[in-house]
Amino acid sequence: MKNLTDKFWKISGKVSDSDDDFGIGVFGDGIKEEIGYRHYHETKKILKLIKPKKSMNIIELGCGSGRFCKELSPFINRYVGIDYSPKAIELAKEMVIRNNIKNAEFKVASAIDFELDESVKFDVVYFGCVLQYISDDDIKRTFNNLKKYMNSDTIIIERDSTYNRTRYLSDSIIYKCTYRTRKEIEVIFYDCIGYKLCRVEKSYRFLKGNDIFKYNKNIIKRFKKYSYEIMNIISLLYDKFIYNSEEGNYNSHDFFLFKKQN
């Protein structure tokens, strides 16, 4: 099982090298326009949670092809991206060259036991949808390794897929994922590293209204920012008045903000 799962993640970085494709999946109506829409709204949330400063050092565990590096690097001192997929890191390095980004570096490594220069401390640790793919015991190992790269006031942001009521395990022959509850995640952070949950937000509202958007692709592409805001409003109205997908033991994609408990 482990070898099959390892193979899955080593090839999963095989995504487009276009800066507009980001190598991310979609969870709403599934049209390509949701890729940019998701990235736009997740970036807004990330910037709001981090509040970047020129003095900041940020490490992203599970960086993929570097989509958040491109958005964060102009506002911070240093960015380091770690990912298990060699292909994803290759694309990330190509992206920084294409965009002339000088304050970023990438490394192929496991989030559990990566190694860096311990003299460099990070103000922000961002888990990019990583912890749901490792066991509770490996999460403890991850935090034990991470401590030596943190300041006393380092904040941690975890992007995770959760279920609201009970833990759900996806365990196919090549894909294993643990969808924990929000409460479980809160307890894990406190027990493992003494961090307290300060904020939870959806990473983005899943796109609804496929029929509206698929016939307006050129308009969306031309007026991205405005289109993505309108798409969010339409999706909100759809959720409220047509179909509410947040009933029962529903799946959610969330940002969790943690700070050290004083």
Automatic annotation (TrEMBL):
<dbReference type="GO" id="GO:0032259">
    <property type="term" value="P:methylation"/>
</dbReference>
<protein>
    <submittedName>
        <fullName>Methyltransferase family protein</fullName>
    </submittedName>
</protein>
<keyword id="KW-0489">Methyltransferase</keyword>
<dbReference type="InterPro" id="IPR025714">
    <property type="entry name" value="Methyltranfer_dom"/>
</dbReference>
<feature type="domain" description="Methyltransferase">
    <location>
        <begin position="53"/>
        <end position="161"/>
    </location>
</feature>
<dbReference type="GO" id="GO:0008168">
    <property type="term" value="F:methyltransferase activity"/>
</dbReference>
<keyword id="KW-0808">Transferase</keyword>
<dbReference type="Pfam" id="PF13847">
    <property type="entry name" value="Methyltransf_31"/>
</dbReference>
<dbReference type="InterPro" id="IPR029063">
    <property type="entry name" value="SAM-dependent_MTases_sf"/>
</dbReference>
